[in-house]
Amino acid sequence: MSAPGAGEPKLGKKDFVSDQDVRWCPGCGDYAILSQVQKVLPELGVPRERFVFISGIGCSSRFPYYVNTYGFHSIHGRAPAIATGLKTSRPDLSVWVVTGDGDALSIGGNHLIHILRRNLDVNILLFNNKIYGLTKGQYSPTSEVGKVTKSTPVGSIDHPFDPIALALGAEASFVARSVDVETRHLQEIVRRAHEHKGASFVEILQNCNVFNDGAFADVTEKATKADHTLVLEHGKPLVFGRDRDRGIRLRNFQPEVVRLGNGVGEADLLVHDETNPALAYLIARLGPPHFPVSSPPSPDPATRTPSTSRWPRRARRRRPTWGRSSTAATPGPSAEPRAQAPRATRPFGRCRRMLSRRRGRARFRRARRSAAA
Description:
The protein has 373 residues and is α/β, with parallel strands linked by helices. It has a 6-stranded parallel sheet with strand order 2-1-3-4-6-5, sandwiched between helices. Strands 8-9-10 form a 3-stranded antiparallel sheet. The protein is 28% helix and 15% strand. The longest helix is centred in the last third of the chain and has 25 residues. It has 2 domains: 283 residues, Thiamin diphosphate (ThDP)-binding fold, Pyr/PP domains (Rossmann fold, 3-Layer(aba) Sandwich); 30 residues.
């Protein structure tokens, strides 16, 4: 496995496809991400034996099995720590961390922010599907407020993490976002992440078609994505829409969406600047219902604080007033009003029954061990 040179065949995608059966669910967005990464790797000019993919725990963390390179399938949340040690001892290697929203932002949150602030030359691909898929559908650190899952039967009360804003806060020197089905855009982002010398953080919006299908439908469905996606290009105004007739301008230090025409032109709009950290954070906070989802084509690898974007920040819901009424508190502007069931019919009774059964089984096991002794 040496670098292609004179007289040696050029590597292609098939050279980075391993002999392992891919065991993701049919239709999972991870397939598309894997395919695009395998297409880009031969173009990077790095010998195959110098690529290393490191993962933690989760659906995305099976990635190293499916790429024909060296790799680690490590422990929960610790992939950045292992990548730090490897890159420090072997700076000649191209080190990639593949992780998910649960693995990176929950148990691995501490390791993630420190690998970003140290600015080691590693590339981090975070697959964000806003759910715990491997453990069959619990809410994750990026799930929206009110998300009903097996672990939140009456809706999540936790406000979600924003991966892009978190990376900017940790002083990451390359921050970007792509979508699993946007193949060309994703390839370009992966390529630019490799070119950057320093810590590269890429959030990839990935659909979990089993436990959280359609979480990013606004930016993936053909009928809606043009009106809900803001493509960022360095030095160009923030224009979006199917007819390119809407834009974002700054008014009283707050962004607002305007329709072009009637005295409003592109000269009045915000112009994207990859080198401006304040603008990067401002764009990171945009999201529905008032703003589109921003998606940069490629950050500038020469800058410390490059282009960024984020998935929409959902408005918070107040905690339900369980003891006062059977209706939910007033939701935020982006949430639909959702009636709560009366107290007597809420699913807490089932949880109590499950807990009682577990305690009974535990008592039975203790009694059996005592009798055997």
